[in-house]
## 1
Amino acid sequence: MGKDSRTRYSDEELKEFEVIILEKIDKAKIALEDIKSTLSRKNDSGTDNTAGTLKVLEDGADTVEKENLSQLAARQQKFINNLENALVRIKNSTYGICVDTGKLISKERLRAVPHTMHSIEAKLKQNK
């Protein structure tokens, strides 16, 4: 398959990506709600057991787990924000255009990472 020399994706193609992104947003929001409900359960529990040293260890483990869940929730929220920003780019017909090279990002890459703003070439250059 040769290089795509177009400057933007067609409305039909953008619609296809919009469907993919909307599905990912729905799944990500469900996952975020699960994380938040787990966190609130963690915050509610832990008052009944008063067994000295064991309690201190459990509190420490709980704190680490809460921090991990909080970080996971923050990453999930950032992912949702990135996907929502991608929807804005679809509406503006700028979706799928690399911000570094101005060329179209491959469909394969967009299907794998639908919120990306960088072609694989630009991404590899960034990582050097």
Note: The two ends are 27 Å apart (CA to CA).
## 2
Amino acid sequence: MALTTRRRALTTLGAALAGPLALPAAEALAAEDRGHRPRPLWRAHAHNDYEHPRPLLDALDHRFGSVEADIFLVDGQLLVAHDPDALDPARTLESLYLAPLAARVRAHHGSVYRGHRGPLQLLVDIKTEGAATYLELDRQLRRHRHLFTTYAHGRVRPGPVTAVISGDRAARVPMEAQTVRHAFYDGRLADLESATPAPASLIPLISDNWSLNFTWRGTGSFPESERAKLRAVVSTAHGRGQRVRFWATPDIAGPDRDAVWGELLAAGVDHLNTDDLAGLEAFLDAHRAR
């Protein structure tokens, strides 16, 4: 399958590069009501999305194609926070993400973005012991099974949302044992380099820490050896039907961040990581026009 086709397919194996000129949120909603639907920015990933004033909703207003929620298993509940001291029993994965996504998909007749069939990625970062936390997460995802891309007996059935599990690595064991699951696993570069790599039906996403793999932070020229390494990573992943994301990239507005984002786009990296929703939206809109 061609790379462009794979990115546009309604599967866990691709992500689209899209985005018209930016509209403020209110104007975008009005435009949608008139039938003009701004295209989602599938490559935009909202890092620590739950720290925004309106978790999930702010990212969707900025047309992001991927959002990240950190979870802790506490007394049978999946609570969303970055650190244990910020836990709040009212801020659950169900209330902040699962229920709002289910309601939005119902309202939009089967998609997160009205008129656009690509799946939103929900990256769930497990902060407590992985196996036990995943089993509770799996139970909650099954309550919304029609919302999620599903793996069943060797086949992937696309859904409006694709859940990808990151964080504590122990989650992989119960996931691999399942013949039916409503989530997928976030791999690392080590998984990409393995002599027996897992298929994209388990690991559709390869994520890793930029600062541990590259010395360049956007100042001066990108070293050719590092550019070649980046492109080799992307080429290998895409050849296996997997997407690529790096965290810990520069995220302070300015020329260094833009330089890194530009190289990521040029290399075909599928998700750009940010806490600055408006900044990445504007950057992707500007670069789509080039």
Note: The two ends are 26 Å apart (CA to CA).
## 3
Amino acid sequence: MAEPGAILLSVTGFDPAAWLEELKRQAPGRRIVTEPDGDGDPSIRYAVVWKQRPGILNRLPNLAAIFSIGAGVDHIFKDPEVPDVPIVRAVADDLTERMSEYIVWQVLDHHRKGPRYRRQQADRVWSEDRMQPAARDVTVGILGLGLLGLDAARKLRLLGFNVAGWSRTEKTVEGVDTHAGEAGLDGFLAVSDIVVCLLPLTPATEGILSKPFFARMKRRGPLGPATLINAGRGGLQNEADILAALENGWLGAASLDVFQTEPLAETSPLWTHPRVTITPHAAATSVPAALIPPMIAQMEAYERGEPLTNLVDRQAGY
């Protein structure tokens, strides 16, 4: 029997020790390395990556597949030499559930006036806002109806919110008011009191959350001007435009988990804006124990002659 293919773990920006330990635990019969054995290492069949060093994958002649550690894959395409092999998205119930928890938390926080009451607590002010709409009177619009968006939509509906969804192409989702393409964006924004962004970062979506987008958002609703929640990618948003939209009344509030540059600079005015909630890219933390097992299962299935699943569409960019 042929020796199972080796795995390259290539990450930058954080300590990969936990991922390396989990790979060794889940795949004891495989060689796991953080560096190829010289240029053209023929033993490496799979790469598990996050912001891999540019060019490192293109020198592996027997590379069969690339696995992303995170839900997004734009970090892989920043390597101009990424080879033309299948790219597998990170898909696990744990990752999906964590994202839905974050979305539900932020939606409820804005719905139930959390930012206002935290400010009042800091100032020791006792003042109830009696203009509290019911969930059934509020529509949450989700930009991106992939696996994460669909799960969040289902859980928000269980809480009684109306849910609208926007996607690049037409989709039909039970109980969700769906819109698609550029032609459907105005209709989506016209009904959305809270806009949740879960879009992938692609050339088509880069900078979408900017002045032209905010100018089309709902101005009057049960919560006042619409609220923005971005748990997608930092490259989707223009932070100067978010601040301007908050000041001119196009946006009522914002919860931001991702930023154009991370960590967010200490000098950013977003930190101290009274209607901005900041979290440190923590919406859906990638946990090795949850994400490594399905990767190994895919590798084993592939070696049995079965097709890879959850593949990235290179043309679409996600």
Note: The mean pLDDT is 97.
